[in-house]
Design a protein that fits this description.
Helix content is 25%, strand content 30%. The chain is an alpha/beta fold and 354 residues long. The protein folds into two domains: 192 residues, P-loop containing nucleotide triphosphate hydrolases (Rossmann fold); 117 residues, Distorted Sandwich (Coagulation Factor XIII, Chain A, domain 1), CATH 2.70.50. 34% of the residues are buried.
Amino acid sequence: MKEEGIIGRNGAGKSTLLKILSRITEPTTGRVRLRGRVASLLEVGTGFHPELTGRENIFLNGAILGMSRIEITRKFDEIVEFAESAKFLDTPVKRYSSGMYVRLAFAVAAHLEPEILVVDEVLAVGDAAFRRKCIGKMNTISKQEGKTILFVSHHIETLQNLCNAGIYLRQGTLAKKSSIEDVCKQYLADMLETGIKRLKDRTDRRGSGLIRFSEASFKNSRDELVSSFFSGDEAVLCLKYENFEQKDLKSFHCSIGIDDETGRRIIFLSTDLTNDFPEKTDAFSNEIQVRINKIPLMPGKYRFTVFATINGEIADWVQNAGYFNVEPGDFYNTGRLSPPGQGIFLVEHSFLVI
C-alpha cells in the first residue's frame, strides 16, 4: 500500500504531473511507466458527458476505466449510495451543481476498483462532511485494499493524515521526496521564507482580471508598516489593487482567508459577512483596508489568501499571498496567555461564582 502526497505552490506543476500520469497530457521529454488501472479525479466534470444522466455517466466512466458492464452493475448501488445521488440519477449532469458533480465523480473513481487512484484538489469543492467521507474511502482503498493513491492538496493536515510519503514540487522541479512529515516541513519553511507581499507579478492566480491585487501590507494601530503583531494588537491588512478598465465597480466583494502553519483555514473575513462595503466602488479607488480590532491568535506564523469577485464572477484569487507573525502579547491584560497546545484562539471571558 502507498499513499503519496504531492504539494507545492500554485504553478509548481502538480496538476500537470497528474495529467501526464492520467494520460491526458503527453510529456515533452521522458516517459511514464504505470502498472495497473488508473482512475483520475482531476477537475469537476472530467470523464463525464454533460448531456448524459448520472446513471449513464457511471457506465460511461466505468467503460473508460476498462470495466465490463457486469463489473459496473455489481458496483452500481454502492456508487449511488456513496454519492447520495439517487434522486438525481436520471437528470443530465449538466444540471448538477459542482458539489453534486464531485460527489458522483469521486464515487465512480473510487468504487470501480482502480489499482492507482489519482486525486487533485477538486475535493475542495465538496462540503466538509463529504470530504471526510472521501478521505475515509481513500484510506480504505490504500490500507485495506492495498492500492496506490496520488493525492494533491494544499491542506497539510489532510496530507499528513492520509499519506505516508510525499513529493514537494517547486517551479516544475522535484524539490524534495521523503516522508510526508519531512516534505511538509520543507514546504512550510520555504513558504515562510518567501512570504511574498508584492502581488503584482504573481502568475499563479485565478480570475477574470477585471481587477488585480498588486500589493499586500500590514499596519499596526500607529499606522506603521509591520510583519509581526502581539496577541491582542489591532491589525490592518492593506490590499492595493489595479482597476484596469478605470470604471466604477458594481457588486465588488472581497474575502481574506487566514491559515495556520499546517494550511488549515482558521479565519475567514469577507465583505459578504460584514455588509459594510459600498454597492458601487469608485473607479479611482485602489486600496482596501481590512481591520482586526484585537488579534485573537496564539503566537505563531500565519498565511493569508486574498479573493475578489465582481458581479459574482471571480476577478482575482491569490492563494498564499503572504504571511505574518503573532508574538506573545498581553491579550487578557494579566500578563498571561494560554499554555502552548491549548487551542489556537484567545477569547475574552470571565468566571463568576454564585
